[in-house]
Amino acid sequence: MKALVYHGPGQKAWEEVPDPTIVEPTDAIVRVDTTTICGTDLHILKGDVPAVTPGRILGHEGVGTIVEVGSAVGTLAVGDRVIVSCVSSCGSCSYCHQQLPSHCLNAEGAAGVGWIFGHLIDGTQAEFVRVPFAENSLHKLPDGVSDEAAVMLSDILPTGFEIGVRNGRVKPGDVVAVIGAGPVGLAVIMTAGLYGAARVIAIDLDDNRLELAKAFGATDSVNSRAGEWAEQVLAMTDGLGVDVAIEAVGVPATFDMATELIRPGGTVANVGVHGRSVELKLQDLWIKDVAITTGLVSATTTPMLLRLVAQGKLEPERFVSHTFAMEDFMDAYDTFGRAAETKAMKVIIKR
User: Fold this and answer.
1) Is the pLDDT of residue 257 over 80?
2) Residues 164, 177: contact at Cβ < 8 Å?
3) Rounded to an integer, what distance in angstroms lies between the CA atom of residue 310 and that of residue 160?
4) Is the pTM of this model over 0.90?
């Protein structure tokens, strides 16, 4: 089969690799019909995730069709159309029982890390993928949900909701600032209304993404390039700051922005993947009773979000900006990597 293979920082190739096979009786083999590229894949290619070794097939998002199941798989069958979750869950360890499969103790590669696709085992940017713990890590798709909508439930929609909205403790009437209007930031904005946010302020350097943020549910937007972003946000909140500040970029400057915008008693929810150290100004924050949360998505909300999508309450297919065929995977990476120029949001790669 063909797959997108990582060969070290800055190096990747769409090339021939062996087909995956059933290794454990709980495995399934899925033919990948639709996949996409995540900002985390770009972090990997920059060398920010050293656990990813040369030769690894990248990707942790996908929708496909089951072509083979292991002997212990009873609730799934060949021909089922499924979402491949970005996090694998054994379903039986203490963390999985706590609804934290992001720290699954039985996941392959390293105990305590549920994100294994394109990280510790071969991922979904390929024609076929082996899925461990298939019954707990695949979601059957109802009729009427498109591949384009479903693939957003592999990662970005549950990530934005769980690590941004839910960890941020958004509650009815809150004012929420979302720093970074990329795909995950927009997923936060799309789902903030589920918990009753009264005002959602999108902050970004790119006017195009700020316009998208408005379309996804932001009530206000601030271009931080002007340098007066803090004053603008404070003016919207009677000088107090926001109830919840959600960092969705993954660089020190945007984390600092979140801590500067938060009001006493508020919550800073860090969603972005950071590749280098961030200074925590605890000497300023402790007296404000500020809570700071972090997290890796567990994707335990995927079934709930899927029901909302099936009923037309959420429209994640709106994230799609570009579509490519699998043989054009390298072009897809080029387009996604130059998002400011190409206006790429989520690029879809289809069989």
Assistant:
1) yes
2) no
3) 19
4) yes
How far CA 124 is from CA of 104, 167, 199, in Å, comes to 20, 27, 36
At residue 268, the pLDDT reads 98
Print the SS3 string covering the chain: CEEEEECCCCCEEEEECCCCCCCCCCCEEEEEEEEECCHHHHHHHCCCCCCCCCCCECCCCEEEEEEEECCCCCCCCCCCEEEECCCCCCCCCHHHHCCCHHHCCCCCCCCCCCCCECCCECCCCECEEEECCHHHHEEECCCCCCHHHHHCCCCHHHHHHHHHHHCCCCCCCCEEEEECCCHHHHHHHHHHHHHCCCEEEEEECCHHHHHHHHHHCCCEEEEHHHCCHHHHHHHHCCCCCEEEEEECCCCHHHHHHHHHHEEEEEEEEECCCCCCCCCCCHHHHHHHCCEEECCCCCCCCHHHHHHHHHCCCCCHHHHEEEEEEHHHHHHHHHHHHCHHHHCCCEEEEEC
- Say what the alpha-carbon torsion angle 262, 289, 292, 231 is, to the nearest 10 degrees: 10
Chain-centroid distance, C-alpha 40: 8
Percent of the chain with pLDDT over 70: 100
Residue 170's closest CA among 252, 291, 285?
291
